[in-house]
Amino acid sequence: MQTSDAAVAARTALVDTRRRQLLNAAARLLGRGGSHSVSMQNVADEAGVSVGLIYRYFGNKQELVQAVIEDVLNEFSLRVAEPVQEEADPVRRLAAAFAGYCSVVQELRDAAVLAYQESKTLEPEGRERIKALEVESAEPLIAAAREAIDAGLLGDVDPRVLAYGLLTTAHLWALKHWYFSRFMTHEQYVAEHTALALSSVVRPEHRAAYSDLLGPLA
Amino acid sequence: MQTSDAAVAARTALVDTRRRQLLNAAARLLGRGGSHSVSMQNVADEAGVSVGLIYRYFGNKQELVQAVIEDVLNEFSLRVAEPVQEEADPVRRLAAAFAGYCSVVQELRDAAVLAYQESKTLEPEGRERIKALEVESAEPLIAAAREAIDAGLLGDVDPRVLAYGLLTTAHLWALKHWYFSRFMTHEQYVAEHTALALSSVVRPEHRAAYSDLLGPLA
Amino acid sequence: MQTSDAAVAARTALVDTRRRQLLNAAARLLGRGGSHSVSMQNVADEAGVSVGLIYRYFGNKQELVQAVIEDVLNEFSLRVAEPVQEEADPVRRLAAAFAGYCSVVQELRDAAVLAYQESKTLEPEGRERIKALEVESAEPLIAAAREAIDAGLLGDVDPRVLAYGLLTTAHLWALKHWYFSRFMTHEQYVAEHTALALSSVVRPEHRAAYSDLLGPLA
Amino acid sequence: MQTSDAAVAARTALVDTRRRQLLNAAARLLGRGGSHSVSMQNVADEAGVSVGLIYRYFGNKQELVQAVIEDVLNEFSLRVAEPVQEEADPVRRLAAAFAGYCSVVQELRDAAVLAYQESKTLEPEGRERIKALEVESAEPLIAAAREAIDAGLLGDVDPRVLAYGLLTTAHLWALKHWYFSRFMTHEQYVAEHTALALSSVVRPEHRAAYSDLLGPLA
DNA sequence: GATGAATGAGGTTTCATTCAT
DNA sequence: AATGAATGAAACCTCATTCAT
Question: Average of pLDDT values for B122-128?
Fold first, then answer.
């Protein structure tokens, strides 16, 4: 039936809208007051709905928290994929992916970090899913690193170690923002860490080609 | 009076013992079940004492949590100071300090990381004290980096950025231990990150002198 | 919208009902077992609701206790206003106001007195509000006394001293009810104290006019 | 045995000293912070002894509180007895007894009142003993009133009603001291209430004899 | 006699969750 | 679909009381 189809579509759309509305509200609260301020009542108030309604879209609080974290991790994957595809050179792809991570972190700041921390309170099953998503979100970096190594552009290094190091460096800004912002901007932070990371692995014979990324360490 | 003196000494010793007992119990719980599992009842049970007793040694829960975090941070400072003093060469001092951090992280693992995260729930005043301790615990690294730079051993880099990068790398093992332990030991992790960090900043003309630290990236 | 209006009205009514239900429960407990027996659990049980619900209507225990006391004081003001307005003669107005106080005391008995006593445990701000309400509730008595003095019906006396003396005399029945009830009824108590108070201040030349109030002391 | 006798005497003296020390400490706390501030720990601190020691002199907290109240009531009896004996005239004896009460109240202020209030938390048996003591402490007033009535000095009034009224008036200063002290001193308060009470009951033909007590109401 | 560390029941408060409307 | 009043388990904290020293 057409009506039924339309109704189903409308319902699905509403479900998505509501879920998004609630996830955003929760993320906003996380950013503002830390995990401590995420109560079901607060989420409801922040989203402008009733407490009861949350339970029509998320089975319980854990499911909501899990969804918020997965949402952030998905944002990472999405926001990194695009800049990566535009770069042909694998080293520049690596740098672009790192810059992508950094921009998501800068944007979501507290929410990004706090979402992580909350993960200790989740069920093992949910934790596994989050770990998987995290590994997945690191893939573009690992892939770029591996290709650069295979192309002989980088020295002998484990691509996973390199990639995770960059990923953590991206988060470091959110975690220690209170310290770094005393003496540098986020742009400087990204540039300096890009230079540091690349200068450690780019083979001497290719350094000249990336002098724009390596800066004074070229 | 001997008795009085002895009594006072005994009391002081007891206070210290109890505080340590409670801090350890809390740290153990943090490591096992995350901040979520640190209730006063749980700490009491874990320490084998009654709830009420905790309040003779810590004014309230926040004070206890604050003390746990400060305790961990002090442990960092202590454990890093020693290896650093034994090295004459500033670059090796940097490496030794990093290794010191890593060994504390390895030992306290979860407690180290989770203690940090909990800090979001503390009072601003306490947070400031923790930040100060953290900056202080990074000092040996920053000092070593600065001396190495002044000695012309390292390239042009901000010693604070370098130092905090290493500090975070040390924590990274605790945070992503579930990932890295799949394919490397903690020793390999330390060695590889030491090599990565140094190879990015040691001037080409001095690389040969540190080939033992730089490994394949030498 | 009708529904909305009706809903709002229903909610307001519910809020009022619940507050009253809880205030009454607390007052009942005060009367029965003293302030000692007013625990949130007891209030909840007495009112037939859950503990948590109390916190939807009162922010914390102090607010509840404060509200109970203010409620009693308001009852005094209300119950005294009416009989006072019906009397044209200021001396009779004074007597009517006193009788009004006494009847409230008789009805609320213990709650009335205990509510007072509890006030020592309140915040300074709340205490001030209670004092203000108390002074306010004494106003009708003071006003009547002042008019009677101005009309030359009473001797030279401070109307505030006279009024507060009567107010306390009213409370005295609640406080020492266990003593007086051995040998007199509440009606006799009111009559005797009315006579005592008036005979001390009514000028000799007007005593005859109030012989019904003065009784044997006329 | 002499030694034994002396030892017993010394022990008894110590017991009395300690009891007094603790009662005074408790009374001081009552006066300062209300019944709320009377915890065994606070009493111990205030008295400069350990918590455990209190239990060698009072079986439990209730016994201590009971003793504090009885102590205050005894103070009333003692302090009223003396001035009463010095007056030959029964009306002046009544006034002297009232003044005695007032001076104890003024001295013990809060403790006097708060001691009463606490009584609701005591065991029925203890309450009865307190009531008995209270009635007893009112005896001098009642006796004086009765004699004055028998001597034809006062009008037809129940001596118990008159006596208890005066007793409450004495307490009124402690209870509403915050109000009265705005516009009168304690001396004025005592004088005015003495005048009020006497003018209500002294027979017209004897008023002249007590014009010093009756003041402007003479 | 005296101490004060230790206990644990009981009080206040919060918050995830349910359910009648 | 949506509401929010109601619940009650569980958290934090206090304090009367005991007992080894």
Answer: 85
